[in-house]
Amino acid sequence: MTGSINGIFSHVTHTPPPPPTSTPRQHEREGRPGRLIAHESSRITRRITAFSVAVGLILITVKFIVFRESGSVGILSSLVHSSLDLIAGLSSFFAVRYAARPPDNTYRFGRGKAEGFSALLQICLIILAAVHLLEKAAISVEHPHMLEQSGYAIATMVFAIIITTWLLIAQSWAIRATGSLAVQGDRAHYIADMSANLAVIAGIALTSYTPFLRADALVGVGISIWLFYTAYKVGTLAWSQLIDQELPERERKLITDLALQDGRISGVHDVRTRASGPHVHIQMQIDLADDLSLSDAHDIVVAAEERMMAAYPAADILIHPHPKTCGHYHGNAIFRQDHDH
Q: Which segments show compositional bias classed as Basic and acidic residues (predicted)?
C-alpha cells in the first residue's frame, strides 16, 4: 500500500498542520523550493518579476539617452546588459506564471521546470552580450577617444546603481521566501549589472579626468568577463533542476528525521528528492513491524506525510511502507541507493 497526501497535487484541499517542535529553525531552510504553499510562492514571484521588468525599462531608457550624448563604450556595455536584463526579466515574468499552474491530467508533476528553461534562455543571452561587448571594447582599445558629457554619464550610472540596489533587495527577499530558480537567475543578471555600473563609473572617470583614454574600453572587457562568469552561475542553477539533482544533504536529513520521529518507523531508505520550480517531490520507503494491520500502516504513513507537509507545504510526497524483516525491495534495482553501479 502506498500513501500520498498533497494539497497541491490532488483535488482535495489540504491545510498543513503546525510544524513539529523538532523541525529546524525556518531560516536554516530559506531559499529552498517547497517551503511555501504554491499559490503564496506564485504571488511573490509574480510581483517581483513585474518589478524587475519595470526596472529594466527605466534603466534602458535612461542609459540609451546618456549613450547618445556621451558615446561611452562603458555606457553602451551597460545599456546592452540592461537590455538583456529586460529580456531575462520578461522570460522570468512569463516562466514563473506558467510554472505556477497547478498540475493537471497532462502534467501530473506540474510545470515547475519552466523556470529552468527560462534560465537557459538567460544563459544564451548573457553569452551573446559578452561576445558583443568584447568586440566593441576591442575596437575602442585600438581607437581610444575622449568622452563627452562624462559628468552626466556618471550621474546616470549612480541613479542606475540606486534603483538596481532597490530591486536586488526585493529579489533577495523573494528568493529567501520561495527559492525560485527564475528569480535567482534574474537577480544574477542585476548583480552583474550593478557591478558593471560601478566599473563604468570608474572607467568614465579615468578616461575623462586622466590621460588613460583606454580605461573605458578596458572596463568593457572586464564586464564581458563578468558576463561569462554570470552565465556559468545561472547555468549551474538551471542544470541542477533540469536533470533532477537531489536536494542538499541537509534537506534530505531533515526529511529523514521527520519520518523517524515516529518510533514505530524503524528505518528509512531509498529517499529520492528533486525540485521543480516552486515544488519539491519526495519519495521514500519506511520499515514497519511485520504484524501491523493495513489500517495501522496507513495511519503511520499519513502521520509521516503530515510532518513533512508542515515543513514542505508545496511538496508531492510518496511513501511506501515496507515490512522490516522482508529482504525484497520494490522497483528497479539500479535506482536503489545501495545498488553497486
A: 25-34
CA distances from 248 to 49, 240, 275 (A): 26, 11, 10
Q: 49, exposed or middle or buried, with CB in 10 Å at 0-12, 13-18, 19+?
A: buried
Per-residue pLDDT tens for 287-301?
999 999 999 999 999
What lies within 8 Å, CB to CB, of 98 at 6+ separation is: 111, 114
CB 8 within 8 A of CB 37: yes
For residue range 233-242, list pLDDT tens digits in order: 778 878 888 8
Location of C-alpha cell 549612480: 158
Rounded CA-CA distance 121/46 in Å is 19
Taking phi first (over 0 means left), then psi (-120 to 50 degrees means alpha), and beta for anything else, what does residue 285 get?
A: beta
For each of the domains in the chain, give its residue range(s) and CATH number, in order of start: 33-242 (1.20.1510.10), 247-335 (3.30.70.1350)
Inter-residue contact 285 to 269 (CB < 8 Å): yes
DSSP state for residue 120 in the 8-state scheme = H
Single pTM value for the model: 0.68
Q: What stretch of H or E contains 285?
A: strand 279-288
